[in-house]
Write a structure and sequence with these properties.
Blueprint: H1 22-32, E1 35-37, E2 52-53, H2 67-77, H3 81-91, E3 96-98, E4 105-106, E5 109-111, E6 120-121, H4 127-140, E7 147-151, H5 162-172, E8 177-181, H6 185-195, E9 202-205, E10 208-211
Parallel strand pairs: 1-7, 7-8
Antiparallel strand pairs: 2-4, 3-5, 5-6, 9-10
C-alpha cells in the first residue's frame, strides 16, 4: 500500500508487505542487526552503572544499557566463565568480574587485588574501567551483529588498556565485520601488530577529508590495503 513519507522516514523502514519486496525486506533486517557504538556514557546517571532487566541478552545494545544482562547471559546461560576471566585478567591483572545470579534484575561488580574482600558494583567503578567493560561486552557477546562500528573506543581509557582492547577486537573480527575509527596511534599500532593489518589514515586534502592512498576511481595505491 502506498503511503506518504515524512522527511524523517525512509522507504526501508516503511515496508509493510515484506512478501512483495523480499530483497528490500532482507536488506532492512540486515541493517536493523547492525550496531553502532559511539556514545557509551559513564557519568553518574549512565545506564551502564545501573542494574538492568534480567532478560537473555545475546547482543550489547548501542547505548550499553543491557551490559549486566549480556554478562549474565554469558555466565549463567552460556556458562562461558573462562572467556570473561581471561578478558578481565588481560586488562586488570588479578581482578575478578562478579556477576550474581540474576533475579528480576541483572548486575555486576569487580573485585580488585588491593581489596580482595570487597565487591565494587558498577556505580562505583571508574569511568575508564566501566567504559572498558562496556567495550569488552561488545565483542564478547553471545551473538555478534552482522556489522559492528566502533567510534573512538579509546576515549577515557588508560593507555595500558588499548592493547587488551585490540586483542578483543581482533578475536571478534573472526565472527563479524568490524569498522573502527580511532584517533589513537597506540590502538592502531596494536591492531597492526596483532592482526597484521594496515590501518587506513584519514587526511585533509585541499580542504577535503580523504583516505590516504585512495584513488579517485576506487582502490588504493597499495593493492594490499
Amino acid at each position: 500500500m502506498a503511503a506518504d513519507l515524512m522527511a524523517s522516514e525512509t522507504a526501508l523502514a516503511s515496508i509493510a508487505e515484506p512478501e512483495r519486496f523480499a530483497d528490500l525486506a532482507l536488506i532492512r533486517r540486515t541493517m536493523l542487526d547492525w550496531r553502532f557504538y559511539h556514545v557509551l556514557r559513564t557519568d553518574r546517571e549512565s545506564p551502564l552503572r545501573r542494574p538492568c532487566l534480567a532478560v537473555t541478552s545475546p547482543t550489547l545494545s548501542s547505548d550499553g544499557s543491557n551490559l549486566a544482562a549480556v554478562f549474565a547471559t554469558l555466565v549463567h546461560i552460556r556458562e562461558d566463565v573462562a572467556s570473561l576471566r581471561n578478558m578481565i585478567n588481560d586488562a586488570f591483572a588479578g581482578a575478578r568480574l562478579v556477576v550474581p545470579a540474576p533475579e528480576r534484575t541483572a548486575s555486576f561488580g569487580m573485585i580488585f587485588p588491593e581489596h580482595p574482600e570487597r565487591v565494587f558494583d558498577a556505580s562505583e567503578l571508574s569511568d575508564g574501567t566501566l567504559r572498558y567493560l562496556a567495550l569488552a561486552g561488545t565483542p564478547m557477546a553471545y551473538r555478534l551483529p552482522a556489522f559492528v562500528a566502533l567510534n573512538k573506543p579509546e576515549s577515557s581509557l588508560h593507555p595500558d588498556l588499548l592493547d587488551p582492547l585490540a586483542r578483543l577486537i581482533i578475536q571478534a573480527s573472526s565472527r563479524t565485520q568490524i569498522w573502527l575509527v580511532t584517533h589513537s596511534e597506540r590502538l592502531a599500532a596494536s591492531l597492526r601488530a596483532h592482526a597484521k593489518i594496515e590501518p587506513l589514515r584519514v587526511v585533509k586534502r585541499v580542504g577535503e577529508t580523504w583516505i590516504q592512498g585512495l584513488k579517485l576511481v576506487g582502490g588504493f595505491d597499495n593493492d594490499e590495503q
